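Wait, mind explaining this?

_____
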Amino acid sequence: MQDVDATQRAVDALTMPRGILAGFPAADLWTDEYVLAVGGGSPLTAGNMSPAALAEMSWVSSPRPSQWP
């Protein structure tokens, strides 16, 4: 990211690990060990969520540095 200020003005939200951009506001989005976030167009809903459905989905992993030695 070359122009942090311009990027911050151009997006509604930016999700990344804490500490990458010093001096900018940050908030912890979750404290649970596992979080499932899906877009509005996702076929996964509360009514059809199952281990089998989750196994077929694409995943993004975001390890928190505080959990690692």
Q: What stands out?
A: The CA atoms of residues 44 and 57 lie 9 Å apart.
